[in-house]
């Protein structure tokens, strides 16, 4: 009876550590499976970004979810072009919008008129001494004897 007792204790110690060890491995396996799924999703998103498809756009998001073709950049671009995701005509329109803005800024600058008072030359001619000239120039935004 004494011989059977130590082996029973050893068996019970092994059975108690096995479920804990097994649970640990199962937890690690589950975490590994989740990481693989997340990695596959990130790789897929990266492929679509490489194909110049913005995944944050709602229209593109539907395309990404529904795409089931080859997962290569070229194949994705072909399919995106076929369904009209690439707005090649949109790029020149955007450039025209930007160009229009630049033209409006340039036109506003042209119509702005002179920066200084147009009568300043006339007023300078009416001054009789340096003190009056200095006061006139400073009143019109010019500095006098300023070190650069």
Structural write-up:
The longest helix has 47 residues. By secondary structure, the chain is mainly α. The protein has two domains: 87 residues, no CATH class; 34 residues, no CATH class. It contains six helices and no strands. The chain is elongated, with a radius of gyration of 39 Å. It starts with a helix and ends in a 9-residue tail after the last helix. Helix content is 71%, strand content 0%.
Portion in beta strands: under 5%
Q: Give the % helix.
A: over 70%
Distance between the termini: 107 Å
Q: What integer value in Å does the Rg equal? A: 39 Å
- How many extended strands? 0
Quaternary structure annotation = single chain
- Sheet having the most strands: none
The number of domains:
2
Order of helices and strands: HHHHHH
Quick take:
This protein has helices at residues 4-50, 58-66, 73-83, 90-110, 120-126, 130-139. With 148 residues, the chain is mainly alpha-helical. It has 2 domains: 4-90, no CATH class; 115-148, no CATH class.
């Amino acid at each position: 009876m004494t011989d059977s007792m130590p082996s029973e204790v050893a068996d019970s110690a092994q059975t108690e550590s096995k479920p804990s060890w097994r649970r640990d491995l199962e937890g690690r396996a589950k975490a590994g499976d989740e990481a693989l799924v997340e990695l596959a999703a990130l790789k897929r998103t990266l492929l679509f970004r490489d194909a110049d498809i913005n995944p944050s756009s709602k229209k593109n998001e539907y395309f990404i979810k529904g795409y089931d073709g080859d997962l290569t950049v070229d194949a994705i671009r072909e399919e995106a072009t076929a369904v009209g995701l690439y707005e090649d005509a949109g790029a020149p329109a955007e450039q025209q919008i930007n160009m229009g803005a630049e033209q409006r800024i340039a036109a506003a600058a042209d119509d702005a008129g002179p920066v200084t008072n147009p009568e300043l030359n006339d007023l300078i001619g009416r001054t009789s001494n340096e003190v009056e000239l200095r006061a006139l120039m400073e009143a019109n935004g010019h500095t006098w004897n300023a070190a650069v």
